């Protein structure tokens, strides 16, 4: 068996290859991010053995050009969480000193000795992989949009605070169009009531009450702001407004593309049958669960990845009470994007499902906070979603409630 550790950088990869006993089969070597070097690596591996099952290749990230190439050559690739890698470094050195060759050696040796810490890289079908890339990029765009919205509001506060009373959401399309046309209070104040209504009519805002409210604010005396501040901050705000227009368009384009890809995926019908889940949510669930139903025996790994289940530590035994000491606390280490997403699913289901609302209310009555109760509900829903995904079954609320009733009857019979 050969264990290959790969430490990656922007332009190169450092590699170490060990055998079953932990001995290096060749000196450490470096390859560049280029097709000739990738081909050279393939030839080097084939000189050791043409049987790809005799290799286990470890790397810290599952998203990389070389990670894409190696599975295409039928080599199994495994990834490890960076925090785990940080702990493993201390096994071999007491100092925090590190270098690329050392890291690649640690990766190879840990692959040899601690196989349970690794997760096989499986991008799934081309359709699933495209959806996973789309939802991740879509999430990044939403984060940028939020950042730009905050910056836009902050800029307005400094030279045009009245504008914050014009629209509840200053980043909506009609708001950005109005600001781009009238970027200062003085320019907007020159509008007549009819001109204001005509502008909003062109941008499909037909609320006369809204336009009258804005007109009333524009007729009042503005907060005095230095001309230099208005001149400079208006340029900054215009720049942010233009960026928001572009990113809003990009998000809309991504959402249309996700919906198109999602509707053709075989698991879309399964996930979309669950209360509170639409196209974007279904695509994100497909990204979390993947295609390989043999990868997970139960839903626990999914619950840990999304951070819905707590961490339980057993610290000893109380001899007097004959009970094990347990410490249960919030799971910090997880995929934050996935965690926020499953929280949103749980929150959305409160208005779509009576049993979900009842479950949430029970936890609130126990004294749990709103996030805690949502996390408990999300944990239960992931268990249900896993069973649906594993068995290729759509959600049926009648079946779920019947199973729940049978479970309660069994519990009472054992009492």
Q: What proportion of the residues form beta strands (DSSP E)?
A: 5-15%
Unreliable segments of 5+ consecutive residues: none
Order of helices and strands: EEEHEHEHHEHHHHHHHHHEEHHHH
State the secondary-structure class. Answer: alpha/beta
So what's the oligomer here?
Answer: single chain
Read across the widest sheet, the strand sequence of neighbours is: 3-2-1-4-5-6
Q: What is the C-alpha radius of gyration, as a whole number of Å?
A: 28 Å
**Major beta-sheet overview:** 6 strands, mixed
- Mean pLDDT score: 89
Number of helices: 17
What is the global morphology?
Answer: globular
The count of β-strands is: 8
- Cα-to-Cα separation, first versus last residue: 54 Å
Q: Percent range for helical residues?
A: 55-70%
């Amino acid at each position: 068996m050969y264990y290959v550790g790969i430490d990656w950088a922007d332009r190169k990869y450092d590699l170490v290859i060990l055998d079953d006993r932990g001995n290096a089969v060749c000196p450490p070597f470096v390859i560049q991010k280029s097709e000739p070097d990738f081909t050279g690596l393939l030839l080097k591996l084939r000189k050791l053995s043409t049987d790809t099952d005799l290799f286990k290749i470890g790397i810290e990230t599952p998203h990389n050009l070389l990670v894409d190439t190696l599975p295409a050559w039928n080599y199994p690739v495994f990834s490890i969480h960076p925090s785990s890698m940080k702990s493993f470094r201390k096994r071999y050195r007491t100092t925090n000193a590190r270098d690329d060759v050392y890291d690649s050696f640690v990766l190879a040796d840990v692959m040899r000795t601690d196989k349970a810490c690794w997760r096989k890289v499986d991008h799934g079908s081309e359709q699933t992989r495209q959806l996973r890339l789309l939802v991740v990029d879509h999430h990044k765009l939403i984060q940028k949009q939020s950042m730009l919205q905050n910056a836009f509001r902050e800029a307005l506060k400094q030279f045009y605070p009245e504008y914050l009373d014009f629209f509840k959401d200053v980043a909506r399309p009609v708001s950005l169009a109005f600001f781009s046309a009238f970027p200062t209070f003085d320019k907007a104040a020159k509008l007549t009531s009819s001109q204001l209504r005509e502008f909003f009519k062109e941008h499909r805002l037909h609320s006369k009450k809204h336009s009258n409210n804005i007109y009333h604010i524009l007729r009042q005396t503005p907060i005095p702001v230095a001309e230099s501040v208005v001149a400079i901050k208006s340029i900054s705000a215009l720049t942010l407004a233009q960026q928001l227009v572009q990113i809003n368009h990009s998000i809309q384009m991504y959402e249309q593309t996700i919906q198109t890809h999602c509707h053709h995926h075989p698991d879309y019908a399964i996930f979309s049958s669950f209360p509170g889940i639409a196209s974007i949510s279904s695509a994100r669930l497909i990204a979390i669960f993947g295609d390989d139903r043999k990868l997970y025996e139960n839903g626990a790994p999914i619950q840990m990845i999304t951070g819905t289940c707590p961490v339980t530590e057993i610290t000893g035994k109380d001899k007097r009470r004959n009970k094990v000491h347990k410490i249960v606390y919030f799971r910090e280490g997880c995929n934050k994007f996935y965690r926020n997403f499953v929280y949103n699913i749980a929150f959305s289901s409160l208005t779509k499902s009576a049993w979900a609302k009842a479950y949430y209310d029970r936890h609130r009555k126990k004294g749990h906070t709103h996030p805690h109760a949502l996390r408990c509900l999300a944990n239960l829903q992931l268990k249900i979603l896993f069973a649906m995904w594993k068995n290729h079954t759509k959600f049926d609320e009648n079946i779920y409630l019947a199973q729940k009733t049978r479970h309660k009857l069994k519990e009472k019979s054992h009492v």
